[in-house]
Amino acid sequence: MPKVLIADKMSVSATESFKKRGVDVDVITGLSKEELIKIIPEYDGLAVRSSTRPDADIMAAAKNLKVIGRAGIGVDNIDIKAATDRGIVVMNTPFGNAITTAEHAIALLFSAARQIPAASARTQSGEWPKSDFKGVELFNKTLGLIGCGNIGALVAERALGLKMKVMAFDPYLTEERAVKLGVTKVELDDLFQQADAITLHTPLVESTRGIVSRARLGMSKKGVIIVNCARGGLVDEEALKDALEAGHVRAAALDVFDVEPAKQNPLFGTPNFIATPHLGASTLEAQENVAVQVAEQMADYLLTGAVSNALNTPSISAEEAPRLKPFVDLADKLGSMMGQLVHDPIKNIELTYKGTVSELNTNPMSAAALAGLLKAAMPDVNMVSAPVLAKERGIEVKESYVSEAERAESLIRVMVETTERKFAIVGTIYRGEPRIVRLFGVQMDAAFDPYLLYVRNDDKPGFIGRLGNILGQAKINIATFYLGRMDKGGEAVCLVSVDTEVSETVQAAIKGLDHVKIVDTVRL
Fold first, then answer.
1. Which of 260, 288, 350, 409 is catalytic?
2. Residues of the chain with pLDDT under 70
3. C-beta of residue 84 within 8 angstroms of C-beta of residue 312
4. pTM (predicted TM-score)
5. What's the pLDDT at 489?
6. Domains within the chain, CATH numbers bracketed
């Protein structure tokens, strides 16, 4: 039974969902880093919110950890690179609190436009400061969205309902999507120059840190409103304070801060500034939703291999998983065989999917093939870390598809190009089992047995007998024997399934036979 640790406070629904699915779960919150390092080796999964910060040290201790689930959207508290290097899947829950966060952004936008918190505080203190508060209408104003993903799109929908004009900066927003949402796609500088109000809905990465900078605030319209319900660190807080005090920014409302919990901040006490303590996802509905969602996603992965909302590996739905499993296994074996037989530096890899397999989700198959290929040099690599490791080593990965008739045989080809030449292995699934149908240009029908001896030789009479004699003298039993050749009298390929490993001494004896060119072994 897989075992999961819930390390941050979240709805009891998460615990109930894990148990209902057959996953053992412990809830231990408020752990120090040292305490977490001590107990993490016994867990297969770690569920967190924003307080626990799984870093490289914690992951190095997490010998059995397979998945980290974030009950929420932002994952800047998780070292994704360290997780990827360790082959740990990182998931978030991008939909569970999207509506709640979008509504909070709109609430802060209204509050900033009308200065509701300050008016409320002074009224309740015994004043009647009606003449001190002159707000602005949102009607017919231009809202600029920095980020137009799930939450940004929901904010756009609500702003359009208020009869605002909406523009968006998002490198991943297509023109077609922008038209469908009813927003105008613009460049970042144009957004700052034209927007009457700006809201942020982007993750915190190196390219977005400080995206609301002193220079961009300087180019913004006088009287602009700034709202951030995304991540702390997106806004230069000192620059925003200066812009508020100068009267250039009319009002600002932040739900998130560069340092949290924000017990102190340069913006606190600044006129026309509103602060909330990271409440974007804090509704009863959202907390319930993300708790259940993260538990279901983690349980699906640990029990069936289904991957949802992962940030560092291809997604596989629960419905897809059983159908994809044999092809993922085939791709892994093809890659593993290639990795053990090709010893020259690899420049690029091309994965070709032919027949009905080309219509499936091939991303996990490609990841599995890469993992198999790299495993010969890096034993700890897996589907999560393989694509990143390949990229770091300058290996280009290509995919191609050949669709045929509905009942056509499904084939996967793994081809690598080295500094010397190209090599290709082709496999299929036959009666539920993976088979090799072509090996380095030679047609054959072979199983992926645990111990394989690969021999390339000139097609001459008597070779098979001499090879069998060497194996017999070494007391190596032959299980099956697969043979193919390019053409009569040309090169032949021999793939022998044996019951035990073939020692280097026996390999040397085989290589000493006349007409033998290459001798190698494969272990699967």
1. 260
2. 380, 404-408, 489
3. yes
4. 0.63
5. 64
6. 3-94+285-304 (3.40.50.720), 98-275 (3.40.50.720), 320-523 (3.30.1330.90)
